[in-house]
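Sample intake sheet
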Amino acid sequence: MKTALEQLRRGLSFDFKLQKQPVAGLVVLIFLLYLIGILSGDPNRPRMVYYFSEMGMFPLVIMMTLVMFQRELGGGGMEMIATYPVSLHLIALRKWLLALGYASVLNVGWMLVYLAKFGEIKTLMYPWSGGEGVKVSTGIPALMLQNLPAFMLLSSLTLAGMLIFRKTYGGLVSGFSIWVLDTISRGDLLKGFTLYAEFLPVDGTFVANRLVLLAGAGGLLGFSLWLIGKRDRWIVEEEE
């Protein structure tokens, strides 16, 4: 137990040193541009909320997942870590959760600034009990919950891509490909499986859409935890 807690403490100490990850600086820069976009808006014509809550946050979720695994997969650290008597499954799960946690902090950040600027967050919201979406004034927790399944899917997809290719670019390609295709098609490509609540088709069901995203996220995460646990995939490269 003591050993496990010590390993967790050491792991978290590295995970919190985001300033050492180059991509983290890019995430901060993009986030600051979002805030500038909000603050420079006309108070009488509020910015479209989904530009930030979905279109803007989706790439940040992908990038934060990359940030959390950049040291291991970008710097060749997995070859060494795989030889240690540590749980690779728990390392991956911890980093995946932290990526979502950091993304959630950014999510709350822009919403607080938006509220300060425009006084309310008014966007398309769907009831979890079923029914059509209605554009209403909503709170931070409700909007976060509505978008969480899409965040989880993108993070899991990015992680799976990185582990399959054993390189960070694998996650970038897999995560950004889905985001770009879904964005430029405005949901027409994925239709009822779109990441965007804003683009959900008229005949689509919000609850079914979110459940599919959650199932996809869970499946990809489970696959990733299984794949990262195959130590021979990481150690062989060092021996070559």
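Comment: The chain has a mean pLDDT of 89. The chain has one domain: 2-230.
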